[in-house]
Amino acid sequence: MGFGRGKVILLGEHAVVHGCPAIAVGIERGVTAEAKPASRDLLRLSPWGLALEPDRKGDEPLERAFAAALALYPERPALEVSAQVDLPAGAGLGCSAAIGVAVLDAIDEALGIERSRTDLAEAALAWEKVFHGNPSGIDNTMSAIGGVALYRKGDALVPLRSNKPLHLVIGYSGESSSTKEMVASVRRQLESDPERVNKAFQGIEALVRNAKLAIEAGDHVALGQLLDLNHTILSSLMLCTTKLDEMCQAARKAGALGAKMTGAGGGGCMFALAAKHDQALRLRDLLGGDSFVSEVSA
Ligand code: PMV
Fold first, then answer.
1. Which residue of 8, 101, 129, 139 sits with most ligand 1 atoms within 8 Å of its CB, as the best mutation to test the pocket?
2. What is the CA(13)–ligand 1 centre distance, in A?
3. CA-closest residue to ligand 1 atom 7
4. pLDDT digit string, tens, across residues 130-188
5. pLDDT at 137
6. Of 8, 25, 3, whose CA–CA distance to 170 is shortest?
7. Which residues pair with 34 in a beta bridge?
8. pLDDT at residue 22, as a whole number
9. Which of 177, 185, 205, 32 has the alpha carbon at shortest distance from 92?
């Protein structure tokens, strides 16, 4: 069975596209996939009831991504891949990357190809490029490898270690957004007002560096404050929505150590950091909807 995790960016999204470091975690929810020889290439996606054929030039990104994935295997039988998606799409949890990783992992397994999770992450970048144009690589990397890690474009992933698990509550705003459009919006702001946007990136980089130390020291109170500050900078880049702000404020008011939007923004998800598991469960009930708890060990 192929598997790709969802991911949550703790700090550093968007700045990571422009060369700054970010910290992300792989969560246990994700995508599973199975591949088997068939009479023609087909990608089935549940629970959406989609059956897609590969199409290099089509309008449907999933069909183009599937074609890009199959092109990585020049000699192979026709394959039917069935994937089960357990993540909201367009929600900042790296859903597209998790599908890509699970699909490639399933094809590898069906063809008896052995490769490391690091090589799998690299191969899945071909899939991600179809969706995001200029992906930083953080989604496919965390999806394949998991844990808690510091990521910088072009560098090897740095796993972070701590003896204290992170209790996260992930809440979905119910509004989806396009990562490609949100990344393009930041680029436009950078081009029109480089001083302001570069200052924002520098601020985010400082928060990421301090967050690394806080995670390693198990200082989740400090980490929570850094999350709140990162959320404010992302808001100043016009990436946040009223709904995401309301959810973050509600979580903080209920005692969360910190809360922020995660991923591309413009909709999608937020998360809160809880001190303990039972507090995480209370925050999940407060946020309601599709929110869920994820405990991540560094
Ligand atoms: O919203 P997601 O899960 O696609 O995360 C995107 C993260 C960005 O930093 C905004 C883009 C990227 O390629 O890193």
1. 139
2. 6
3. 263
4. 887 777 788 899 999 999 999 998 888 899 999 899 999 999 999 988 888 999 999 99
5. 84
6. 8
7. 82
8. 97
9. 177
The distance of Cα 171 from the centroid of its chain, to the nearest Å, equals 14
Q: Rounded to the nearest whole angstrom, what is the distance from the C-alpha of residue 110 to the centroid of ligand 1?
A: 30
Give the active site residues. 139
Q: What pLDDT does residue 133 have?
A: 73
The answer for residues whose C-beta is within 8 angstroms of residue 232's C-beta and 6 or more apart is none
- Token pair of 290 as six digits: 């599709």
What are the structure tokens assigned to 225, written together? 């404050």
Which residue type does 4 have? G
Answer whether 185 contacts ligand 1 (Cβ < 6 A): no
Q: Is 13 in the pocket of ligand 1 (CB under 6 A)?
A: yes
Best substitution site from 85, 127, 138 to test ligand 1's pocket, by max atoms within 8 Å of Cβ? 138
Domains observed in the chain: 2-159 (3.30.230.10), 166-296 (3.30.70.890)
Tokens, residue 52: 């897609």
Whole-number CA gyration radius for the chain: 19
Q: Which atom of ligand 1 is nearest to the CA of 134?
A: 13
| DSSP for residue 46 | E
Gap between the Cα atoms of 83 and 25, Å rounded: 22
